[in-house]
Design brief:
about 280 residues, mainly alpha, 15 helices, about 70% helix, about 0% strand, globular, HTH_67, SalK
Length: about 280
């Protein structure tokens, strides 16, 4: 299968998964457990691993400043339990999808998309993929629109774990360097990435100096030819590491999955809620 098709499929499917980080309903559900703001984000995404301490979350989430994670996770597992957080997450995304998609949640298209996505996401290798492995051990929801969300979550975390491997293999020494590299190609403004992940100006500048010394960025922080090549190599390696999932389907099936989910993702994007604070999903 063409890795470019797998990357396109990831982009098409991402809003259906990613809305959980931005919509009001999940945030309100976490707040009802005593978890406000970033605490809800980090706890809800890490709860599948159990009541782990902040250092495990720092390691698996990578591009957030460690002190941000430590502050957000402080006292979380004294206030609630991982299962309560997972229940809140599922209840929140259920309410969100029903509100945005309406009757489409019970459509034949959702059921067909689930069959394809579940086949891609089931029985994948877990070695070296801690966040994916944790989510793969969770119970599959019964309702098709939630089971589809779970399948796409598995695919997202499988790819995300592989992306961290690709970053480390490329010599990216920290989450801050990963963000500087990302910002340098112009997809997301550097200020947005720095502030949303809470990196101080001095640490951001040090990461810029490190990448500048490697010849990856210029004096203005823009990617050099070498930097763009390195970033594309990271994305290509990420695609390759994700192929274990997409190889479960043939190319027409991947295209069909994209066709089925595209109108759902478009409706989610059209809601205007993706990309709002308090959280954001990428890890590197």
């Amino acid at each position: 299968m063409d890795p470019a098709l797998a990357r396109s499929a990831h982009r098409t499917l991402e809003p259906y998964h990613g809305i959980v980080y931005f919509a009001a309903e999940p945030q309100e559900a976490y707040e009802a457990l005593g978890l406000a703001g970033r605490s809800g984000y980090f706890a809800s995404r890490s709860a599948a691993m159990g009541a782990v301490d902040a250092e495990v979350v720092v390691a698996t989430f990578f591009n957030f400043h460690p002190e941000l994670v430590r502050r957000a996770m402080a006292g979380v597992w004294d206030a609630t339990t991982p299962q309560e957080v997972l229940d809140a997450r599922h209840g929140g995304i259920d309410a969100t999808l029903r509100r945005i998609l309406g009757d489409a949640v019970a459509s034949g298209e959702v059921a067909e998309a689930l069959e394809l996505a579940r086949r891609a996401a089931t029985d994948l290798p877990i070695s070296g993929r801690p966040l994916f492995a944790a989510h793969a051990g969770l119970h599959w929801p019964d309702e098709p629109h939630l089971a589809l969300w779970h399948a796409l979550t598995l695919l997202r975390e499988f790819r995300g774990d592989g992306h961290l491997v690709a970053l480390l293999d490329a010599g990216i020494a920290s989450g801050c360097e990963a963000l500087v590299s990302h910002a340098s190609v112009g997809d997301v403004p550097a200020g947005v990435l720095r502030s949303s992940r809470a990196w101080p100006e001095d640490e951001w500048a040090a990461a810029e100096d490190a990448l500048r010394a490697r010849g990856w960025i210029d004096d203005e922080g823009a990617a050099t030819e070498a930097g763009r090549a390195a970033r594309e190599a990271i994305e290509r390696r990420t695609d390759e590491l994700a192929m274990a999932a997409w190889s479960r389907l043939d190319e027409p099936e991947v295209q069909r999955l994209r066709e089925l989910v595209r109108p759902l993702s478009r409706a989610i994007v059209a809601s205007g809620e993706l990309g709002r604070p308090p959280a954001s999903s990428p890890r590197g």
